[in-house]
Amino acid sequence: MEQLEYRRLIKVLEHVAGARAGELYPVLVEAVAVHLGWVDAFVAENPAYLALGSDGEEQYLTMFRPDFVEEYVERWRWNNPFASRDGVACLTRRGVATLGQLRLRATGPERDFADTFLRRNGIDDMLKIVVRSPATGAVSTLGVPFDGDRRAIGPGDLLMAATLGPLLSPYFDANLVPAPVRAQVRDLTSAERDVTEPAAPRKRRPTS
Description:
Distance between the termini: 40 Å
Number of helices: 8
Helix content: 40-55%
Largest sheet: 5 strands, antiparallel
Shape: globular
Strand order of the largest sheet: 2-1-5-4-3
């Protein structure tokens, strides 16, 4: 890794280390956007496909619109290529994967997830990073959407992603957001999600 890339990672970690209790997520999102160019990063806590033996209650900390999250949970969750056998194997073994890599062996429904659901929302590729708590063993993923018209995932992104995941692990021991704001999507109504989840910070491409 180049010295400049190390400096960028250090800047991210400096911001994360300075986050106050319960405010890790917004600080992390801003840090990776400013220093790594990763816009709209989101966290999935306790993803069922990686947290085997858990209660399967995924929690999403995201800047995406509530209707995007709701559609994902209700229709697309189990067609997510990252939840496929290849996706789980790649994330478990390497700690990082991209949608583009997994699409090569994706099933029809998994391709629909990428080509219909994500692309309709302005996402052409996705970078997924595993972050495991060293204290509790709890697993989270940091997801980064990429709009191909603006920027594609490059080799440098993959290298930094593989390096960043383990470095973030110590900071994921504490709650990412205060309990009243924590979004358990399955248990909230649409109206409640409108309150607990902020709107997307950038405009998505219109549906074609």
